[in-house]
Amino acid sequence: MGEKILVGFLGEAGYVETKYYIEDKNNYKITKYILEALKEFVKPDKIIVITTETAKEKKIEDIDIPIIDDVKNHLGEIEILTIPEGKDIENQKEIFRRIVKFFEEYKDASFHVDVTHGFRYLPFIFFTSFVYLKNIYDINIEKIYYGNFERGKEYTPIIDLSYLLELVNWSSSVYLFNQRFDAEALSKAIVSTKINTHEQSERPTNLRKLGNALSSFSNEFLNVRPIKIANIATDIKEKISKSKEEIKKWADHLLPLFDRLAEEDFRKLSLENPETLDKENLRYQLNLIKIYVDKNLLLQAILLLREFMISYIIYAINEQEKWIDHNFRESVSGALNALDKSASKHNSEETPQNQNVMDVLQKVKNVEDIKEFIKRWDRVIEYRNIFAHCDMKENTPKNLRDFSSDIKEIVAYIEKLPHLK
Description:
Strand order of the largest sheet: 3-2-10-9-8-1-4-7
Largest sheet: 8 strands, mixed
């Protein structure tokens, strides 16, 4: 474990002796510098003071010495980071650069940060810098403090503002989830939701189960398993309902997210009988392909689109009971390849023309609009093989920008097919 470092700001004025305390009024420290109180409460290995040249040179009137010297008298050994005043954009950028460069050296430390005496918006720049460092090095900010001084009152509570950083973490994890249904960060945030154990004895069991379910959903979604996706999405809707009271109690900032998930995302991703191949199931798979395209997950979209087209043909020839029979699906694929006169150019996994394929082929030939269907099948197989062979083929596209629009065109065609009406 790295050092425990206490970080605070030194402004130009506003230092009044008071009784600082954290939670317990009986355990207080009389001082005019909150960092001195925090030194006693936190017991850091190192203290870093962030200040400006103006603040350092400012003198305390009654003792006629610079504030920085008085701080040293109270705190003992400290390290000083001097930053610009931040009066314009370039100054603000320089503050950010200095903070990032300075604290990179301590990326393995745990930080306790006080923002009580930050001048103007400097604490905000500092906070942004630490969020940046956390994203790069995953630095550990244990606590953020603010001394809530009120003139005329004997005691000054030191307030814990650490939840602000938690909100940033939540925002990042929610963003990742919204972008691609990647729930790893969100699940960890939910499962590790901090609880005020001095106030609450019970644990948020339903909320933790919800976090684990989101992680499972994400794995199934990114690995293109539509039956599992449908089942877990239905389960998550129920878990959100069961977790509502716990969410309000321990993580009320998540209510808008989970309300949206329940009413929009997981409603669309749920299916009552995903093991049964019917029109509803086909429409569900098609909607899932659209979601993959919208989230720019083209590999997943192509993989599912190929399987969807096989499922559609199975439904069209009235063989629904065999839709998850691997051998039968391969026979359908072989029949489609046989009808595609250009398939040999693309399909490196062409199915041998055995009797099963020939039997299926006779049925597939009679499917309505099969010629146009085969044209799209040919393109899907081409794209699928580009992905499957990791582009290790001749004459592949230079980029994948056109894939998305082409997939959308194929999906638009499929939506109009007779067995989906």
